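Example (one chain per record):
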Amino acid sequence: MNHNGSSDPANWSYPAGYNPADPPKTVVRAKQTGAPNVGSAFWPSDSDLLNAPDFQTFDSLMNQAHGSAHGYIGGNLGDQHLLFRDPFVFFLHSNIDRLWAMWQRRGNGTERLDGATAYGSEGNTKGSGNVEFGDPNWGTLSPLEPWAGMNAQDQNTTGVVINMMPIRPWFAPENEQNLPGTNKNSQDPTVVFPPSYDTVPHSAYIVHEIDTFSDSQVQNQASYPGALLLVFDGFTLDELGGNPPPAPTLSVTFDSSGGPDASASVQVAAEAALTEGGGPDTPQRITYPLDITIVDPNVFNTFLDTRFVVIEASVSRFSASAFIQLTKQPNP
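Predicted structure:
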C-alpha cells in the first residue's frame, strides 16, 4: 500500500499489480519434484494432526504441514504477499479447515467446540506487534482482520496490533467492514463451530448456550428458548428417520442418568430440526434447539446450594446427554 505521503486514506493507492480487486493474469508455480513427503518429520500426516492431544500440539503440527504444502507448490504460494494469486491457496486452506473441524469433534465432550475452551492455554490472548514492521501477533481476542476493518483495533489500549493496512473490499469504496457481523474475534461461535464436511465422523452431542440457572434468575424469566442445542453431526436424514427428522425422545432426571424424575420441575422441549440441505443421503449437521422451562421454582427449596439436572435425548438409535445446574448463587 502506497500512502503517497498522505495521512488521508482516501489518497492511498496500491502499486501496480497489487490491488486484490485487480489481480495479475498469470500464476507462478515452482513445484518440487516427486510426491509430497507427507508423514515425514517436517510434514505431519492427517493422522498425526487428528490424534494431537491438545490445541497447542495440533497448531504446531498444522503450522509444519501448512508451511510444507506452501513450499512444495512454491512460486506465488511461497510468498505471503502473492499467494492469493494462485487458486491452489483455497484448496490448501480449505483442507486445513477440514482437518481442524475433524480434530474438534474428537474431543471428550464439547470443549473443542466452545470459543472459551477451544484454544487451550492460548484462549483469551490479545494481539500485539506492528504490521508495518512485519511482526504482528494475533490473539484469539483480536478482531479478525481484514474483515473487521483497519480501525477495529483500539490504538489507545494495550494488547492490540498497530498500523493495520486497508484492503479492499474492507476499505473504500466498498467499506464492507461496516456490515453487521464483520467485527468478530476467533472465539465467536460462527468461527469456532466447525462446518459439516463429508469426512466428518458421526457424532452426537449437546452444546450449552445456557448451563446454569439461579433461583433469582428464574423468578423473572422461567423459559429459555434454545438454551441447549442437540447436534447430530455427519448424519444423513435417512439415518435419523427421514425428512423432516422425527422429534427426539427426551428424559430429565436429577443428579445422574437414571436418577429421580425431574420433569415436574424442569421441562425440556425440542424445536423442529434445522438441517443444512441436500438429499436424504447427504451427510450434514442436523440440529434441534432445546427449550428449557423451570416450571416449578419451588425446586430450589429442595437443596442447599446446587443440584444437577441430566438431560438425555435420542433420535433413532443415536443419543446424547448433558448436565445443567440449578443454583442458589447469583448467576453471573
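Caption: The two ends are 46 Å apart (CA to CA).
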